[in-house]
Structures are given as C-alpha cells and as structure tokens.
Amino acid sequence: MSANLVNFFILKKQICLLLFMLSQVSSGHEDDMYTIQYTQETFLDAIKKENNFVMCGHCQRLSPTWAHLSKIYTEKDDNVKIAKVDCTIDSTLCREHDIAAYPTLKFFKAGESIGIKYKGARDLSSLRLFINDMLESMSMVLIFTLYYIFCYNKDHAPSPPEPVNGLSELTEESFHSHVGKGYHFIKFYAPWCGHCQKLAPIWEELANSLRNDDSVSISRVDCTLFRSICEQFEIKGYPTLLWIEDGKKMDKYTGQRTHEDLKTYVSAMHEKSTEQSTNKDESSEITIHTVLSLTGDSFEHSVEKGLSFVKFFAPWCGHCKRLAPIWEELGRKFFANENVHIAKVDCTLNTSKQLCYEQEVDGFPTLYLYRNGRKVSEYNGPRNLDDLYGFVMNHLRSHDEL
C-alpha cells in the first residue's frame, strides 16, 4: 500500500468502499448518472474529502444493484459516494492492493495496512446495512475495498495484441489470453538493462524472420510495467527468455543470444513439442474417457444424466496446474462407474466463456457437482485425491439411499 494512502488513514472520520475491477464487460446496463469514475490521478484526492463506496461499473450480475445503491446514497447521504475504478486502465492503483482471489471485500482501519475481509452478502439490503453500521459505529477512518472479477462476455474479451513485424508487445490484459494456446518464445526484460538493450535489435530480427510462421509467436514483456506477470514466471534477472506452451513454462533459453542461435532453438523446441504432442495423441482416448473435456456446446448434454463433477479452470492458474494430475487420477478412479462423470471446462476458450459466466464461475479452479443436469453442490474442501473421492462417494451414497 502506498505511503500516501496510509498517511490518509489518519486524516479524519470517514468510510471509503472500493471495487477494483479487472476488465470491462458490456452488460446491457450502461453507466448510470450517479456513479463516479475514479482514476489513478483522482482517487487519492477524492477519498480524502468524502466517504466512498467504489464498485465495478460493468459487472453483469451486480450492475443493477450497484446502480440502485449509487442512486440511494447520492440522493440521501452526502457522506457516502458510490464510485468505480477500472483496473484495465489504472492497473498501478489496483496492483497496490495485491488481490489473489475474486470477489474479495476488505476494509482497512486507521493506521493499519492489512485489510480485514468482509464476507457478507452482496445484495442491496446487506450492502446498505453494512454502510450504515460503519457510519454509526466507527470513530476512525475506514476504507472498505471490494475487489471483483467476472467472466468475459465472448464478444468483449480482450483482443489479442497486434504484432509489429512479427513481434507482440504483451501487457497484463493481453498476456494470458495470448499465451494460453500454442507455442511462444517470450523475452522478459527491463528497458534500463544493458544486456536487454543489446538483445533488442536481435529479438526484433528474430520476430521479423518468423512473422509468417503461424506455429510460433515471438513476444516481449516489460517487467517494469507488468511486474505481476514477471513475478508469476519467477523472473529473477534480465533478459530472461522462456519457451511457453499452452500457458505453461516449458524451458528457459540459456544459449548464445545471436539471431542464428535463437532461431535454431525455436526450430528445435517446436519440433520437440510437436513430437510430444503426437505421442500424447496416441493415448488421448484414455484421457478423454477418464476426464471429459467439455465446452459450452457439449456441456448440457454431457451432464444431463448421472452425477457429474466438473472442474472449471484456466491454463495459467497455478492452483489449477497443481490440481490437474489429481483430477486425472480422480477420473481414473471413477472410470468404470457409468453413473459418475469427472469433467473439466477451460474457461479461457471462446466456446466456454459464456458457459462459465452462466455457471457463476468467479475464480479458478471452481468445482461444481451436478446431478441429472442440475447443480447441487460446490466443493470447497482440500484438493487432495482422498477428499475429492470421498465428496463424490458421499453424494453417490446419499442418492442411492433415497
């Protein structure tokens, strides 16, 4: 948290409630006349003056509730302002709050830099009750922060970056959608780094020489601007050159940084990856039968009969990667049971994004249990094989007893 924000905590009695959203989605509810838009430049000045409740202006499910809440406090209470911060525009402001799961609601007491999570309901009456309780009971500065993420409408997902002479410039908004599928050779760098400056024209030459090759993408990420991406891939020095396949780091290049050596490496990695993919295809029948890969087109038909345990995930999600082998093993344990289906849905696919929104998937991984096409439970326990297996068996037995 910035020093300016901490210093502000001791200024005066007030309430500030914030939502930092990660993307804009058109939901049919346009910006209302009561809600204020904050930016990096206006945020600190605004919250010093008045009480604020800041929320996503384009969240599909909460948008009408938020507009109603904004109208109420705009007309009846000058001490509370309803506003919003767009994190796709003001990413620096949002990064200060280090949010790891969505939705997350926090409030901060005076002088404390660690927030306390709010776990109440997000309906209008609960939000009003919370605000009123805070106004009545708090004799200190209170900042209440709501961090929210939602599934993309497929027509409004971030557009992939347009390469210039074969080189893609990646940002926090475009990175995961860009590298989620296919083969990628990516340079992580800092503009002030001497070795990076020396490599720059060579990297551009490499990208230009492969610009007509659709099988591999050459990209770069400025770690001084997009620190969270570089932290995710554990970048410790500059430049770092990584080979990424379907969102996963497969190799780190440590050879000579000449155009010829780099191009030879790309060719070798692509050939190796293609061979491994061919070998996997030979055994794909087993994988398909143990864990079903579903999309928006196949989901309804696949879960309409029996018990279906479905993992909604994203390839870049660390928790999803750790769960993947356990999920495959769970599928094998129920392989012979015709009444149980273990399945997965990749929410980053265009064919699945609307499905994930409709199923109210707000974070990854999300594990839902369906019986005869109807969602009956969400699993929130430990993600080990025994507990997951026991969860399914308990639902299977309870149904048999009926």
Automatic annotation (TrEMBL):
Pfam families associated with the record: Thioredoxin
SUPFAM superfamilies: Thioredoxin-like
All residue ranges annotated as the Thioredoxin domain in the record: 11-136, 156-271, 277-397
Keywords, in A-Z order: Signal
GO cellular component terms, A-Z: cytoplasm; endomembrane system
Residues annotated as signal peptide: 1-28
Matching Gene3D superfamilies: Glutaredoxin
InterPro entries reported for this sequence: PDI, Thioredoxin-like_sf, Thioredoxin_CS, Thioredoxin_domain
Family: Belongs to the protein disulfide isomerase family.
Protein name as it appears in the record: Thioredoxin domain-containing protein 5
